[in-house]
Amino acid sequence: MSIAKKHKRAPSRKTASKRGRAKAKTPEPRYQLIGGKLVTMKRICKVGNSAAILLDKPALDVLGIAAGDMVEVEVADKLMTAKPVRTIPRPQFNALRKEILKKYGKTFEILAR
Question: Considering only CA atoms, which of 40, 44, 66 is closest in space to residue 54?
Fold first, then answer.
């Protein structure tokens, strides 16, 4: 029996990294409560030809939003603000519209002339 057959071959780099080392975890974001605001640092991620800021569960819970919800994004003076878009349910909107037209309908007619 040859010496090469007695000894197992060294695992390839790809296999060794899978077996021997645990995958490095990204650290959990640390939140600080500053002036009643939840503050953390986020990294901008590349998504196709765009970039994104990923929000985790605590941030989504504080905002009261979920994946797929609309947000209003305002960018000015190197500052970005994102706010959830709140919509009024259709029945409530129709009732409000009728109330406004009843109260200010004549004024709207005069202004429309």
Answer: 44
- Identify the burial level of 59 via C-beta atoms within 10 angstroms of its C-beta, where 0-12 means exposed, 13-18 middle and 19 or more buried: middle
Domain ranges within the chain, ordered by starting residue: 26-69
Q: What is the pLDDT of residues 46-93, one digit of tens each?
A: 999 999 988 888 888 888 888 888 899 999 999 998 888 887 788 888
Q: Phi and psi at residue 67, in whole multiples of 5°?
A: -55, 135
CB 52 within 8 A of CB 45: yes
71 touches 82 (CB < 8 A): yes
